[in-house]
Amino acid sequence: MNISQKINKISKSKRILFTTPSHDRTSFIIPNCRYSVGKVFYNNDLSEINGLDNLAEPEDIILQSMKKSADLIGVDNVFYLINGSSSGIIASMLSVLRCNDKVLIARNCHKSVINGLILSGAEPIWFLPDYNENWGIYDKADASVIEKFLSKNSDIKAVIITSPTYEGINSDIKKIAKICHQYNTILIVDEAHGALKSFAPNYFGDNAVKLGADISVQSLHKTCGAPNPCALLLCNNNIQPFAIQNCLNLINTTSPSFPLISAIEDNINYLFSKDGQIKIYNLVKNINNLKNKFSQNDKISFCDFNDLTKMLVKINGLTGIELSDILFEQFNIEDELANYSSSLLLTGIGTTKYKLKYLEKALNIILAKEYFSSQTKSSKIFLSKHIMTPREAFFAKKVIISTENSIGRICAEIVSSYPPGIPSLIPGEEINENNIIFLKDTISVVC
Ligand SMILES: Cc1ncc(COP(=O)(O)O)c(C=O)c1O
After folding, report:
1. What b/e sequence results for 229-241 when a residue is b if at least 16 CB atoms lie within 10 Å of its CB, and e otherwise?
2. Phi–psi pair at 21, nearest 5 degrees
3. In terms of domains, do 425 and 396 share one?
4. Residues 6+ apart with CB under 8 A from 70
5. Based on the domain organization, do 339 and 204 belong to the same domain?
6. Which regions of the chain are under pLDDT 70?
7. DSSP readout, 374-394?
């Protein structure tokens, strides 16, 4: 029996519950919530009552479900995350890093990595992957750069990289994992944008753990059709599963949502089913069709070296930000993010052929005009001098000062635009003139 069947069975049994949650399933639903959340959600929203397992100490249906998912995905262990990849990244870091442990991190990381540093007290060593000015994106994490750091710092406990990046750039995980293991270092991969790898390696390549990483974290909600913020943590047996569980329990609610837990299970089973596989096939086909329609038009280009679900597009004479504005204002199309070079249109399992057709029409209308924008600015962050660990700075006494007066001062909090959530400044970094220029540029883009 799967989790949703078990929830249904309990619902049908008409058990009289003197337990949380207080809405008592459908006995009382706040009127507006009937429409905003829905009756079915309330009906399935149970606590860890008899017969339902406990996400913090799974030993029954949740454990069986996670084991079955691990078998299907082909890794040793799977954990269901009901608080996004963010929670999986933090728990991974807490499970392998102790205070003052050194950790090598690709600086184009998500802000949750910084939160993991603040909570663990680990000491980061940063490297910044190359920046591709043509597209305005970070390139893959270079295995040889990682090897150089590891060979010079024998006490690096773990390496953390983002692959694929927000824009779909994959690193060579197999090679990086091999290097990390040669130096006795743990490899954690933020694979938040690569969850489809677990279900369709034929299109997207194998997931990071299958390629040798020790831990990877994937957001099912980003590409696979699960509701926000369903995600997965995958790990192999190098990592003690109870250590991960203990660290998840440190940061998770003790009242996890059963509708979300069952949605994770249903999402995995669906994507491995025949219907799910056809859905992925059609998604890939429809995206390729759209890109092919423009392949002979030299006024428009799609990035062709990234994950194909992340459509990174450029039109001659327009900055990515201008393209983004036109799409929004004239066609009611909202992209995920844009920079001076390109605009990022994210797709996933819910992206229909009709939606892509509408985009194609919009792009054709845009292409019928000439544009002559000459603006260019880099969105590359500037590395700053590290004065304190993120944890020390986060817990230090703070003052609020104007941006102009901040040069030479130590940053006390994470400063990042969202998306993509890559911090331009992190706690413990000395603020310099370049940071301020970058921030002002970023603010002008957001406004
Ligand atoms: C690269 C990357 N990692 C991690 C996360 C966090 O994922 P979640 O929203 O599932 O917590 C994000 C979110 O945008 C992200 O872009």
Report:
1. bbbbbbbbeebeb
2. -80, 160
3. yes
4. 76, 77, 78, 234
5. no
6. 374, 443-447
7. ------PPPP--B-S-HHHHH
Question: Among 189, 193, 309, which residue has the most ligand 1 atoms within 8 Å of its CB, making it the best to mutate?
Answer: 193
Instruction: Specify whether 258 is located in the same domain as 305.
Output: no
Q: Residue 165 C-alpha to ligand 1 middle, in angstroms?
A: 10
Whole-model pTM: value is: 0.96
What is the residue with the minimal CA distance to atom 1 of ligand 1? 110
Tell me which DSSP letter residue 429 carries. Answer: B
pLDDT at 445: 52
Distance 22 CA to ligand 1 centre (A): 31
**Per-residue confidence (pLDDT) for residue 443, from 0 to 100:** 65
233 CA from centroid of ligand 1 (Å): 13
Residues 161, 283 within the same domain: no
- What pLDDT is attached to residue 444? 57
Tokens, residue 16: 């009289």
Quick one: which atom of ligand 1 is closest to the CA of 219? Answer: 10
Which residues surround ligand 1 with Cβ inside 6 Å?
84-86, 110, 112, 162, 166, 190, 192-193, 219, 229, 231, 420-421
pLDDT digits (tens, 9 = 90+) for 96-121: 999 999 999 999 999 999 999 999 99
Atom of ligand 1 nearest to the CA of 229: 10
Q: Cβ neighbours of residue 187 under 8 Å, at least 6 residues apart?
A: 158, 159, 161, 173, 176, 177, 180, 181, 208, 212, 213, 214, 215
Cα-to-centroid distance, 85 and ligand 1 (Å): 6
Domain count, the chain: 4
How far is the centre of ligand 1, averaged over its atoms, from the C-alpha of 231 (Å)? Answer: 10
Q: What does the DSSP assignment read for 10-38?
A: HHHTT----SS-TTTTTT---HHHHHHT-
Is 281 found in the same domain as 266?
no
Strands (E) located in 152-194? 156-162, 186-190
Ligand 1 atom nearest the C-alpha of 231 is 10
Residue 446: the pLDDT is 46
Residue of 82, 83, 85, 224 to test ligand 1 pocket, by largest number of atoms within 8 Å of CB: 85
Q: Are residues 403 and 350 in the same domain?
A: no
